[in-house]
Design a protein that fits this description.
The complex is a heterodimer.
Chain A lengths: L1 H9 L1 H27 L1 H13 L5 H27 L7 H18 L5 H30 L3 H23 L1 E2 L4 E2 L13 H4 L8 H18 L1 H11 L1 H6 L4 H24 L20 H7 L4 H20 L8 H14 L2 H19 L3 H12 L6 H10 L1
Antiparallel strand pairs in A: 1-2
Helix pairs in contact in A: 2-3, 2-15, 2-16, 3-14, 4-9, 4-12, 4-13, 4-14, 5-6, 5-7, 5-12, 6-7, 6-12, 9-10, 9-14, 10-12, 13-14, 14-15, 16-17
Chain B lengths: L3 E12 L2 E12 L3 E6 L5 H8 L7 E6 L2 E3 L4 H6 L2 E4 L11 H6 L5 E2 L2 E2 L1 H14 L15 H14 L4 E5 L7 H16 L3 E6 L2 H7 L2 E6 L2 E7 L5 H9 L17 E11 L7 E11 L3 E5 L6 H9 L6 E6 L2 E2 L5 H7 L1 E4 L3 H5 L6 H4 L11 E2 L2 E2 L1 H14 L17 H14 L4 E5 L7 H16 L3 E6 L2 H7 L2 E6 L2 E6 L6 H8 L7
Parallel strand pairs in B: 3-10, 3-11, 6-9, 9-10, 15-22, 15-23, 18-21, 21-22
Antiparallel strand pairs in B: 1-2, 1-4, 4-5, 7-8, 11-12, 13-14, 13-16, 16-17, 19-20, 23-24
Classes of the chains: A mainly alpha, B alpha/beta.
Chain lengths: 395, 508
């Protein structure tokens, strides 16, 4: 058993999954405590409901979970992709919002297209809008070294007020205080998913999101472009020394990240006829999960698919637990707690390794044997004390 | 027993996957200079970090003046009279010497600084130990040697009587080293007890009374320095016999490879200051040219201009008669220049990549490693395996080893392997042996000479005089951005080189 555990600990993928699971469990625990404080009687049934996610609502619930998963995958990929290049794209909300507007306008006003491609044009238009929106921070970062964190946040504010204004002046329905409906031909194809999950907003966007994740995986890990991106992300100085054109990379990464965030905005607002842009001074909810999704998924495209599903599962479950007297904000608290803990995931990992090191040391006669054995097993484990000291101070 | 002012008994410190200190015993007599010798990663720093309370030991006891003490942080150590002169000084650069010395232990009257009393005390100390320091000069405006004396005064002002010197000579010119050695001897004569960490055998022979040798976390021996030879010390340190002298034949000098003509380079950033002033030099094929000099005299800017990391303000750079002044870094990389950078972890490697990915850092897009934009992993892997084999790089998982987990020496070997394997005519090696142990240094010097003998031009930047004298065929000395000497190693003494390096002598 111990052997098996040790062996598992050596495995990198296992480590990553474990260091994501622990924060999730701790987050859930604290979440339960929060629920208990709000409403002691309803806490347990409400908690169970939340854990079951969409399942308590049968097919519709599952459909809704997958519908939210779609958006979270795309926004998470947008952030994760920029992380991999060492950039911090906090502008997903802005790119998403601008893209939503472009999708709505194409969906409503461009009516001379054949029905079969109308949705595609609207979706791609949304992507392009997101890309353009992200291009400005990208250019500023690449050529003037202006922090992309600040510029993208500012672009978020610009986008929300700009889109409010544009919707109000160009495509507004007073009776619902929101954007008017788009054409049916601009809706995402359902591919029969609405028959399997009746009553939910699930659509072909899910497959597009998964497709984008796979493409991103291939780009990052199989192509020369991805190689240069990851090397810039891990060590900008060494990449410059090696002659990699990091300015070009920064710009391209921001455009691609913006395009993916834009796809999310388009797909989201093309998902059903009742999905309208509400004029409001607060940011749209869905892209707000982009950073937690990327963190929890370790910025890995495939990890992001799972972390998106988990967050969607909890979000839908949380909204269903409202039946037990919980405000939907509880879910917000729990997600926040999970992110909080995911920052500690490396600490958990190191604690586990240390725990096993000591156990071995006490159990066996010679220390050197134990250590060298463990070193062999750990393989890539850090062996330079200076590096360890260095990492622990960073933490 | 009561002679010992400091005893560290059975100190054990574990890190995940390694035992950094394994039952180490270390005793310091009052008034002695006790050298601590060991390769990188032997456990010297760990032992000192335990002494200063930065690491909590997993086992063992520390006695100071006969009392068992638990040291939890550097403040505890300071209270016990233990002080350290760090390799990289811990000084506030915009403060004066005096301000730095009293920082943290200021005498105040109702919250107002009482500088006069402190000044008198510091002046008395500096006279007693012959530490000449201009107390009103800002650290920024000082030579390194004086900065170090400020550090020493700082310890003395805190009434430390156990003084730890962590590789104190690494940043000094030979003349400054002489001065420091004398200061250390004086301090010991005045009753201070000194731990002298070094891997330079010459210095240990010169000032050390006893020497403790560490290897792979274990104490190998504690010896009286007078009883052992350099060869014996290095053998105990490395665990095998090593060649202290590099063997090489006379160079077969070919055509000019690198030619730098009237080059001016500004400091990185938007600096107005020229770091390289109208430098002209050339390096021929089959020749190792060393640039000697004290750190920060323009050597790194010179290298950055040749490799394309910094633009030349004026002047031209030619390689094989091609004007490359305006070429991109990549064009220089793939055609002509290999470069072993000074900071291997910052510039030379991507620590979180594995070995095979690090081997293709400059060449990943070339036909050998990619096709239509997709990486060719089987070729990349085969290439990595070949290099690991050829350069004897020790790694736990071969091409899949994450570079961060490798020792400094093997990291450096990996860079060496990559740079020597790539197509190039000029190899620029910046402090290629910095921080490496004797065995690795020996290996790297051999490789450089092999490279020279195969007809490459080599520009070696080094702060180590031994290295400069041993390896090079010609020496240029750089001082304040200018080349102040151009000499052959057998026509110049170390003393003269030191004078050139400190700017007090100028040659051709």
């Amino acid at each position: 058993m111990k052997k098996l555990l040790n062996k598992l600990l050596v495995n990198n993928a296992f480590n990553s999954i474990l260091s994501s699971l622990i924060p999730i469990l701790m987050g859930l625990l604290v979440g339960f405590v929060v629920m208990y404080i709000f409403n002691p009687e309803g806490a347990w049934p409400g908690f169970l409901t939340m854990l079951q996610g969409g399942l308590t609502d049968q097919a519709r619930g599952i459909g809704q979970v997958l519908y939210y998963t779609t958006t979270y995958i795309l926004v998470g990929l947008s952030v994760g992709f920029s992380f991999q290049n060492g950039l911090f794209n906090i502008g997903v909300i802005g790119q998403f919002t601008i893209a939503a507007y472009v999708a709505i306008i194409i969906g409503a006003k461009v009516t001379n297209l054949p029905g079969s491609v109308h949705w595609l044009v609207a979706m791609l238009g949304a992507g392009v809008a997101g890309a353009i929106w992200a291009a400005f921070p990208g250019l500023l970062k690449a050529f003037f070294n202006v922090s992309e964190i600040i510029t993208t946040i500012m672009m978020n504010y610009i986008s929300i007020y700009l889109v409010n204004y544009l919707v109000y002046t160009t495509h507004y329905d007073k009776s619902i205080v929101a954007s008017a409906y788009i054409e049916k031909t601009a809706l995402m194809p359902k591919l029969g998913l609405d028959k399997i999950f009746p009553g939910s907003s699930i659509n072909s966007g899910l497959f597009i999101a998964i497709f984008v994740a796979i493409v991103m995986y291939i780009i990052l890990y199989k192509t020369t472009f991805g190689y240069s991106l990851r090397s810039c992300g891990l060590n900008r100085d060494a990449s410059q020394y090696a002659g990699i054109n990091e300015k070009r990379n920064i710009f391209l990464v921001m455009i691609i990240a913006g395009f993916i965030a834009g796809l999310a905005g388009g797909i989201n607002y093309q998902s059903s006829i009742t999905k309208v842009y509400k004029i409001s001074e607060t940011f749209i909810n869905e892209p707000g999960y982009s950073i937690p999704v990327a963190l929890l998924g370790h910025s890995h495209p495939l990890g992001i698919i799972f972390s998106s599903f988990f967050i969607a599962h909890i979000t839908v479950g949380g909204s269903l637990s409202q039946g037990y007297g919980f405000p939907v904000e509880t879910v917000g608290i729990i997600t926040a707690v999970i992110i909080y803990f995911s920052a500690f995931s490396l600490v958990f990992k190191n604690m586990l390794i240390k725990y096993f090191t000591r156990r071995k040391y006490r159990g066996s006669g010679s220390m050197i044997d134990a250590a060298s054995e463990l070193e062999l097993e750990l393989g890539a484990g850090v062996t330079d004390p200076d590096v360890i000291a260095d990492t622990s101070t960073k933490l | 027993m009561e002679d010992y002012i400091l005893e560290m008994q059975n100190i054990t410190k574990l890190f995940p996957g390694i035992i950094a200190n394994d039952n180490i015993n270390f005793n310091l007599k009052k008034g002695e200079i006790h050298a601590l010798l060991g390769e990188n990663g032997a456990g010297k720093s760990t032992l000192m970090n335990v002494l200063f309370g930065l690491y909590e030991p997993d086992g063992g006891k520390i006695y100071v003046r006969g009392n068992e003490e638990k040291i939890n942080n550097p403040q505890d150590a300071e209270r016990l009279g233990i002080g350290m002169v760090h390799q990289h000084f811990k000084l506030v650069e915009v403060f004066t010497a005096l301000e730095n010395i009293i920082l943290g232990v200021e005498t105040t009257n109702k919250g107002v600084l009482q500088m006069d009393k402190a000044r008198k005390e510091v002046e008395a100390l500096s006279q007693q130990y012959g530490l000449s320091v201009d107390l009103d000069l800002k650290i920024d405006d000082m030579q390194v040697g004086m900065q170090q004396r400020v550090e020493i005064l700082k310890m003395l002002y805190r009434e430390s009587d156990i003084l730890v010197f962590d590789e104190p000579t690494a940043v000094l010119t030979p003349q400054e080293v002489d001065e420091l050695m004398k200061i250390i001897e004086d301090l010991a004569a005045e009753g201070k007890s000194i731990i002298f960490i070094s891997h330079k055998l010459k210095e240990i022979q010169r000032v050390g009374d006893r020497c403790t040798i560490l290897r792979k976390g274990q104490r190998i021996a504690t010896v009286d320095v007078a009883d052992v030879t350099d060869e014996q010390l290095s053998e105990m340190m490395v665990g095998r016999k090593v060649m202290l002298q590099v063997e090489k034949s006379d160079p077969e000098i070919g055509d000019v490879c690198l030619k730098v003509d009237d080059l001016v380079v500004k400091a990185p950033g938007n600096s107005k200051y020229n770091k390289v002033h109208h430098v002209s030099l050339d390096v021929h094929k089959g020749e190792i040219v060393a640039v000697a000099g004290v750190e920060n005299n323009g050597q790194s800017e010179l290298v950055m201009a040749i490799t394309g990391l910094l633009p030349a303000t004026s002047g031209r750079i030619f390689i094989n008669d091609k004007d490359i002044t305006d070429w991109s870094i990549r064009d220089r990389n793939i055609e002509l220049v290999s470069h072993i950078p000074a900071d291997r972890q910052k510039h030379g490697l991507i620590l979180d990549f594995d070995l095979s990915n690090n081997f293709i850092l400059q060449t990943y897009f070339m036909d050998q490693y990619s096709k239509n934009g997709f990486l060719n992993y089987s070729n990349i892997r085969a290439h990595a395996e070949a290099l690991i084999d050829r350069f004897d790089i020790r790694s736990a998982k071969g091409p899949d080893t994450i570079v961060r987990s490798m020792s400094g020496g093997n990291q450096q070997k990996a860079i060496l392997a990559r740079e020597m394997d790539r197509k190039h005519d000029l190899l620029i090696a910046v402090q290629p042996t910095r921080g490496l142990d004797v065995g690795a240094i020996e290996y790297i010097h051999e490789q450089l000479i092999k490279e020279r003998d195969s007809g490459k031009a080599i520009l070696l930047i080094s702060l180590e005089l031994d290295e400069v004298m041993n390896v090079s065929d010609r020496i240029l000395v750089m001082f304040e951005g200018k080349i102040v000497a151009n000499v052959k190693p057998d026509e110049v003494s170390e003393r003269d080189l030191g004078l050139y390096m400190s700017g007090s002598k100028r040659g051709a």
